[in-house]
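Researcher: Please predict.
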Amino acid sequence: MKKLVNEPRAVVRQMLEGFVALAPGQVLLDDETVVIRADTPADPAQRKVSVISGGGSGHEPAHAGYVGAGMLDAAVAGDVFTSPSTDAVLAAIRAVSGPAGSLLVVKNYTGDRLNFGLAAELARAEGIPVEVVVVADDVALRHTVEPARRRGIAGTVLVHKVAGAAAAAGLSLEDVLREAQAASAELGTMGVALGPCTVPAAGRPGFTLGDDEIELGLGIHGEQGVRRAPLVAADALVESLLSIILEDRSFGASTRVALLVNGLGGTPPMELAIVTRRALTLLGERGLRVERAWTGTFLSALEMPGCSLSVLKLDDARLGWLDARTTAPAWGGEGRLAPERPARPVAVTPSAPLTQETRQPGMERVRDAAHAVAAAFEASEARLTELDSAAGDGDLGLSLSRGAAAIRALPESSWTNPPRALTAIGDALRRAIGGSSGPFYATALLRAARRLSESSTNAPAWADAFALAVDAVAQLGGAKPGDRTMLDALKPAADAFARELKAGTSTAEAWAAAVHEGARGAEATTRMQPRLGRASYLGSRALGVPDAGAAAVVVWLKALTPFIG
């Protein structure tokens, strides 16, 4: 596993220095891995109740990211996945506490409880009032250990917010403790890992998973889950996680809740948004009232792919604490949901209605040929995806499969004459295919349709239309043969078709020559230095693999062969 670190033993200090350098409201204590609020009053007598948390590093943005007005007054960082020392915790208490005292928010791990607990005792001996709230929100252990022994995981961030807001409002230490304890008692979290993470000092993953396996009910220290399960779709996974939380916490219909969708470090926002979408829908279907929700990476496990869901029961007071202002840089914002409203329709200029036209003879064959191309695109999806991934973004196979579905969905009124058919196919591909392929094919087909509408639709006219379509692609993309693009298959195919027809060969033979030359052109791209498109960013590293766009041209050239001549 490659990591952007210097010396593993220096990771924590260097990380905190980087965080604090971009956080004007924070300062790092000398000789300790402790981050405190920069506006902490120098006179302890002027300090309100302070809220302190922390734990092992590797959970970023926790815990330093939550240091700010309205959340934590100090965060204590240990080595990766290792509790901070008692002395570090005690240094944090001394730095931000006064006569009003401090609340320590501790995740329920033995090392954290021991070191934070001992530091609390030492601080009390110095005359500093200190209370401790232990968060044990992991519902995955409901059949394994008693509730008080469950792990503290991502839901702890919500307790930080509640306790920090209560302290900022001027509540006493006893009242801040009461609010934090009540929130912790009404909180449940369940996580899933799609893969392991690697501790810098270890240099290897903590466990291995098959391509079709996941770990359900894991903690936040790179450990395995409660059980291994087969990989399922995101919606099914969300339903499994939420069902366990709601059952364990006895959250039924009409319960007011807040939702936290947390990434474990290796999950992109795209996937977290998909999870959030289903979680909100499912909670609504079960009658719960989701009043606040956040999605993002709040408490990670290094680079572990996966997520956790946390559900917190709300009342008016707790909602107020969540809504209270904070300057903590990693807090997720207001968490307000958008009002329910239907999707806004796209504004379009109505097309002129299609006039009723008599279907020209042979148009059934044109329709069947188009459907054969659609089938060929679908059959080639995996291969085109592989080729496109080697030198592009890997979306060509899926894009052309979407185009195939769009072709099949065309109404029968599209197949009355060749110009109308090509125009309809072009419009369908333009709407269905993203990236560059959609505009290229749509432009080519529209240019060919205009040519065929000007005269008869005999073989020479089709050859002219093919040549004009290729010219349209070249003009739109600015490419020329030899640039390693789809033109390297299109141009020789169109030229061969026109040349052979002019020489007097049959249409079928001319098309066979076109397919042959198109395939030769596509194969030649394996030796071409790319000059346009994403492949051009790779330079010579793209050599040895044919251009995916050119290969796709060969797919439909071959698919049309049985229908020509």
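Model: The longest helix spans residues 459-477.
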